[in-house]
Description:
eight-stranded mixed beta sheet, 25% helix, TIM Barrel, alpha+beta, 15 helices, Urease, subunit C, domain 1, 557 residues, Lipocalin
Amino acid sequence: MTKLALSWSSLLLLLLLPLVGFSQNSADDRPPVTGAYFIQNALVVTQPGAEPTMSNVLIRDGLLAGIGKNITAPADAKVMKGDSLYVYAGFIDGLSHVGVPKPKDDDRPRYEGYPGTAPNDVAGIQPDRSVMEMIKASDKSVEEMRKLGFTTAHVVPHGNMLPGQGAIIQLGGDVANDMVIRKGTSLFAQFVGGRRVYPATDMAIMSKFRELYKQAEQAKTHAARYAKNPRGMARPETDAVLTAFDASIDKKRPIFFAVDNVKEMHRAMTLQKELGFPLVLANVSDGFRAMDMLKSSGTPLFLSMELPEDKAGKKKKDDEKEEDPVKAKMEERRMAAMKDYVGQAAMMAKAGVPFGFSSMEVKAKDVRGNLERMIGAGLTADQALAALTTTPAKMLGLSDMLGTVEKGKIANLVISDKPYFEKGANVRYVFVDGMPHEYEVKKKKTKKAGDANATAKAAGSWSVEIDAPGQDGDVEMTITGEPGDFSGSLSFGGESTSLSAIELDGNTLTFEAKIDAGGQSLPLSFEVVIDGDSFDGSVTAGSFGTFDVEGSRKDPE
């Protein structure tokens, strides 16, 4: 590889020009949604439980215009050969922050008054807010989830007790209004207290929720009576916080409670029984502890795709002595508990409890692996597919437009080179609203696996070489500090950018950077394994793909 003295914009062109042909057409400069596409001779899985059937798929005006062996390609359609490709309905995320950037601490309201009288925005009571005001179509999470096969998501704001109202969006489009399917689809609640203000505990949150709901009922009743005959009645006050509950009081809008544990699950269901609102439990991680309750109540359920880390395969340190019996017993209990968490989805399916999935806490890079672990624990591929397609479509009221590969439905598709849940399968295309996004499958170099028990030195000056298709690029990197307090920068052609989120886990180094791409910010995410004075790994450049990266220390000891 040769060193190139280029500007950041030149580096961007170096990395991305080989991919511009399809990526620009499918994202920024894409053709109008009236375009037609014809997927020829693909193995189509129309719904969970259906056998893959060799078929053709016609997409027109963002809809599935035809599926079958005998349909032919119209003259104006772009023909895509589907030989050996598997076609599924696009996946649906039941509760998510995808496309909703997390606010910085500096953006949060400050309050120094009495904790019991904090304003609603400080206390985290903001049910009148709409997530539509917060969606950023260019947020990297949109592309990260889309390349996994997710095409639709029920998204909600960040916040505390009552962050606001959710919306169902498509994971495609240039601005929020291009993405939305339905606004105000949910009221989002969670047991997250305010910082040093009331309500700060679960019990306080339950008390405040009851108070607000009862006040909202009273205000709604008063307003209805006033509308019929205002004589002798005080004019109703306008309170956006209370009015936000109206649709839930009328049982027209569910309240999605994100619950981190079985206690929070019981508390949310207690509130529902007392007040009568339509409830959905989401981000559920230990529902296996309340299986009978969930089955008898029929409460809609979205399980967390986050799973405990599996440390069983990690090697012991060379100097580790024979394991302590107490520690061994603790590890045995930890492994038993992890087995329950990983097997939760299979337990639900076996018990006949319908569920979808939520990505609120999981990292996108862990989703495929966690689904594989669930299947390894007894969940079948058909059950997993149902939890990603037909079940969330039904729970979110989208079955008439999404969830299956049927004529007339929205053309949201995920296309893989093997059955999706088979090990080694790659997503090749994702269609959102009939628009294609192509993902290149690169032949991976044989890389050393990271070792969490290894020791490595990240600080220093490094020469970094990025291998883009048909091109090579070289960058200089400097890291200073110690684990937990790293800082650094990338330099290229006299220009530099700061590194962020620098973490060293054993000998695995991860960090992020952003470069200016013609006025737009392009995120770069690196993951490398350090071996003495060299490293190798990969860098993901936004939606343009993942490239091999190598590095050597410029100041070896």
